[in-house]
Specification:
By secondary structure, the chain is an all-alpha fold. 72% of the residues lie in helices and 2% in strands.
């Protein structure tokens, strides 16, 4: 076995997995406050990438200014989506709410590239293209920066849920009626979580957009992100880090050795198996809360 090749797959896979966490974090933030799995997070990542490209690449704004403006827009978009769409579904079966988020995903995936163009667009955020070379191991600089951003955002999210507002969000998720009874505005709490998911989508859109270009395929990051969320636990912030690394490593090492033999395509198979096996053997994930209902 080529040890250098294995270590390269292992390191870059871990970093890629942490970048998946940028997308998965938005799903967890919303579920942790509302109990709703947001299947529109991939399209929100795509929207954030297109928006940043439009501001920085097309209008020529400095990158930091473009990111700040895009952050404000994505936060507002998240809150607006909750106010106009999700709030109307209060009292409806959870499956219909999930289908609504899926509908939003499909709508944005068609609308945004249709308006701004489907061709891949470069997003330069100043990360050198040359890899870091350690012996015979090549490490992608963008993956390294993306992983660092993911860890920082997860740490900030953990700190946020210890604040007064974060406690209100957790209370709203545990029991809407009880939260209302003690004066917590459940609607506002859920709207804030959608806004925060918009900020998480911005981080994912900018980092992933700089790596693979900005186009509709950014929305497909939802697939590995769902694997991360399911494996880590739908309501676990720390789970997105651990599960992200596991999914990233499996999706890098296994295809690295199997793809040359079968001709490619095993990454999606590995991701699918992670989802299926986790649901079968540990439905609440590694760190998710297991709710036991009395019948």
């Amino acid at each position: 076995m080529d040890i250098a090749y294995f270590l390269e797959l292992l390191i870059n896979g871990s970093l890629t997995g942490l970048m998946y966490s940028l997308v998965a974090l938005g799903v967890v933030l919303i579920y942790k406050s509302s109990g709703v799995p947001n299947l529109a997070q991939g399209a929100m990542v795509m929207l954030a990438g297109f928006l940043t490209w439009w501001l920085a690449g097309l209008l020529g704004l400095p990158l930091i200014v473009a990111v700040v403006i895009a952050g404000a827009v994505m936060f507002g978009f998240g809150m607006l989506a909750e106010r106009l769409l999700l709030r109307r579904m209060v009292g409806q079966p959870i499956i219909m709410i999930v289908m609504l988020t899926l509908g939003l995903e499909i709508f944005l995936r068609g609308l945004v590239p249709g308006v701004l163009g489907a061709a891949p667009k470069p997003l330069d955020i100043g990360i050198p293209l040359t890899p870091i070379i350690i012996g015979d191991i090549f490490i992608n600089r963008a993956y390294l920066w993306g992983a660092a951003v993911a860890v920082i955002l997860v740490a900030l999210s953990l700190a946020f849920f210890q604040t007064r507002l974060g406690t209100k969000l957790r209370a709203a998720s545990d029991d809407h009626v009880a939260a209302w009874s003690v004066g917590i505005s459940v609607e506002r709490a859920i709207a804030v979580s959608w806004g925060l998911a918009g900020l998480s989508a911005l981080a994912g859109g900018v980092i992933w957009g700089s790596v693979q270009g900005v186009d509709w395929t950014l929305s497909t990051l939802l697939f590995p992100a769902i694997a991360v969320v399911i494996l880590g636990g739908l309501d676990s912030v720390i789970g997105v880090v651990v599960a992200g690394i596991i999914v990233g490593v499996l999706g890098s090492v296994i295809p690295g050795y199997v793809d040359p033999i079968v001709g490619g395509g095993t990454r999606d198979v590995v991701t699918s198996l992670v989802i299926l096996l986790t649901i079968i053997f540990r439905p609440h994930g590694m760190f998710g809360r297991e709710d036991i209902e009395r019948v």
